[in-house]
Amino acid sequence: MKKRFSSLSEIRDQVSSAKIALPEIVDYYLSRIQQFNHLNAFLEVYADEARSAAVHIQQKMEQGKAGLLAGMVIAIKDNIVYKGHSSTASSKILKGFESLFSATVIERLLAEDVIIIGRTNCDEFAMGASNENSGFGPVLNAQDETRVPGGSSGGSAVAVQADMCLASLGSDTGGSIRQPAAFTGLYGIYPTYGVVSRWGLIAFASSFDQIGPFTSSVSDMSLLLNIITGVDEHDATMYRKPSLNIQLKKEQKPLRIAYIKDCIEHAGLDPHIKNSTEAFIAELKQKGHQVEGIAFPYLDQMVPCYQVLTTAEASSNLSRFSGLAYGYRSPGAKDLETTFKRSRTEGFGAEVKRRIMLGTFVLSSDYYDAYYTKAQKVRQLIRQKTFDIFKDYDVIVTPTTSTVAFKIGEKSSNPVAMYLADLYTVQANLAGIPALSIPYGTHPENGLPIGMQLMGNSFNEELLLNLANAFV
Ligand code: GLN
């Protein structure tokens, strides 16, 4: 889809040469939001706030006092809290909930003069791969409205895809940024676990969750990561490291790149995506990189392991939504038990309930060792095997997804088919390593975008982005 601006540097050039002023840019995005309202990407638009921020930041730009991200208009996923604004994680159980504080990422972006234009629809509590699990209706893919945009950060993806803002934030627990990025032709990254603060991210599975951006350019991805990363005392699971300092370079040294043969030979992979992956590998070789196929024996164990661990963590994280302190309370609540029972029964959607029950089951004393402990061991094996690969290689390549954006309703009645949409993405979350999805061509039958995934060793975001930049 043709976009008016595809990077912050374009906006900055035009604003500094007085071709356009920031308030006009905000008005442009607001008009796009109105025009594409039916895609259901936004749950709330902060039109007045965005307009007045634009006036203020325009002045700062003219005075040469503006922050590093002045001119950037972004949307945020509805599970990232913003002081004085509603956040619901697209769940009825949090309808009307307003946060008393802002997520660290929000504070850091605002400090650099980002304009937040609204909050975006997603799968309820980020559980899903199609955005069909939202408590507020599905999001439509802007390129083909009969198809899903991917999930769970589908609204954040479509907001950028349909040019309703320049960039957006999503969250990724098992692919929720990369898969919708692939389905909408964008860049999307899962940063190294522990480099982005989770303070203010409504938790799904805490040992997997990370916030990350969606962008139309590698340069904006780098700029945003440089701002949102870096230690935050509010999040004890972070690395004690300063922000990333990603620099995009013109020249690139040859890299050792592995592709996972089991992924490319997997029966579920669309043959055209397989062809694109092979073309991508050929292009990498042609650019002077050493590329080799390797085996990864745990492909079939990854999604089950991910499901056991994330549902276990979710069942614990979501116990706080009880109808007592905040959020939805059932009108039928009469005593403590009916308050919990009815509020949770009525407030949560089907998929969230399914996962809470599964997670409670795998943590129950009779089954703890058989499922939870075992999955922890499998996670350790997957991590180990992944880090072993990085002893010999700099980057691991796979397709991001095994299909292009699928039809609305195609997988929604079959949870197992839906979970398999995460086949290639969960490895990065299980190992905690950075993974970037980049747009790479389109499907010959339907013209839908295809994404390639580049995984790197911990903290190697700069390497991944530079590799991606060579394909721009
Ligand atoms: N699709 C995956 C799931 O349903 C990933 C979700 C996510 O990354 N938040 O769990």
Plain-language structure description:
By secondary structure, the chain is α/β, with parallel strands linked by helices. It has one domain (1-472): Amidase signature (AS) enzymes. It has 16 helices and 11 strands. It has helices spanning 8-16, 22-35, 47-62, 104-111, 154-161, 178-184, 218-228, 261-264, 271-286, 299-317, 336-347, 350-363, 368-392, 415-419, 426-431, 461-469; strands at 42-45, 73-77, 115-120, 167-172, 187-190, 210-215, 256-260, 290-294, 395-399, 435-442, 449-456. An 11-stranded mixed sheet has the order 1-3-2-4-6-5-10-11-9-7-8, sandwiched between helices. The two termini are 16 Å apart. The model has no long low-confidence stretch (mean pLDDT 97). Glutamine binds at residues 126-129, 152, 172-176, 204, 310, 422. Glutamine is lined by residues 126-129, 152, 172-176, 204, 310, 422.
Keywords for this entry:
472 residues, alpha/beta, binds glutamine, 16 helices, globular, Amidase signature (AS) enzymes
Can you summarize this structure?
The protein is 39% helix and 13% strand.
What fraction, in percent, of the residue positions are helical? 25-40%
Low-confidence stretches: none
pLDDT averaged over residues? 97
Q: What is the name of the CATH superfamily?
A: Amidase signature (AS) domain
By DSSP (H or I, 4+ residues per run), the number of helices equals 16
